[in-house]
Write the structure tokens for this entry.
Amino acid sequence: MALIDRFFNRNNTEKRLISSSNFNLGIFEGKNTSAGINLNTDVALSLTGVYSAVNILANAVASLPVHVYRKTEKYRSLLDPQPGWLDKVSGMVNPETDVFEFFHRIMTSLLLYGNAYLVITDRDRQGYPSELYNVHPDDITIQRQNGTVIYTVINQGKNDKPLKRYTSKNPTGTIIHIRAFANGDDLKGLSPIDNCKEALGFGKAVELYGSRFFENGTSLSGVIEIDQTPTEEQLRQFMETWDRHHKGVNKSHRPGILTGGARWKNISLPPDQAQFIDSRRFSIEEIARIFNVPLFLLNEHTKQTSWGSGLEEQNKAFIQYSVLPWISRLENTFNQLLPRGQFIKFDLNGYLRGNAKDRTEVYNKLRMLGVLTANDIRNLEDMSPIEDPEIGDTYLIPLNMKIQGSEEPTQEV
């Protein structure tokens, strides 16, 4: 079973249009690169830089709180109750997938394939989607028929049927398609793996070179010259004896003994002279560029970054330039699943969850500005409210503040 299979469901439930056999990446045709690597998604994901970058972005989005709000004339109000498929406490997107896993799979599909697909399997009384399943991008075929885009979930046997895309203007559709990088009128989004195959193939080639280097004895890389002309059997025995004494990391740097006029001739440069380590670093930099992830998050600290002067600034830049565009794309898509006047929002304040100091400073400022009450803050911290409403539900206003145009500062609390 392919490595990427772990990110998707495996079940033969009738309600789902997905079977376990469909998530085998062995059928995915790789792309030959100039470095001699037959690159596909599994090969790319085996690179530690790719795995880390994809996991970082997927976790960053999936870990954020997600809420649905209702628009009013001037304000917005939190929808109560929340849609069942979005309720992280008691609800699930489907019987097999919680909210975190659901969004994580969406991000994984977008980052590795450039496309994410969801199938609607149930609706509420108003006809809006209430149950969704992730579909592996390899299991979808798309074609345009008479001006209409038709989706088909492949390898489903009797369940094969054309599906139409769901949008707010086409609520009878059954499939939701999210594209990471739209290219003109193409039906599919561009895959980072396919479009950056040369860079990723180079990184995999460097990795394999290093593995072979250590496998074959580290410091031995050359030919053995013999004055005589040995038979094939003599050559075979000689090579077997040589490998037995020198092949492998544990036997590296052993002195070689040559007899019978044989001479060792070094024909390649050692890895340090061939800038092997620099090539590995360059590969990490290429991956960081492809997925728009700062180098420090990939544990590459040898070069100073232009993302900011400090860790805090770099984290802010990561949220603004790497995470926020993905969030906006998902919000625009899922807004179409909600009734008119409602919208979905990822709460970026979730990033403050692991930083008590920053969280406290934000609460304190909002409390002093009269934006939050003590009970509002306690609710955000999952604490029980203060029973006395004069204490818990009172908004504070600094005494030195006044209403614009008035002469005296307000004294109300």
Observations:
- The chain has a mean pLDDT of 76.
- The longest helix spans residues 311-334.
- The chain has three domains: 1-218+271-351, 222-267, 355-413.
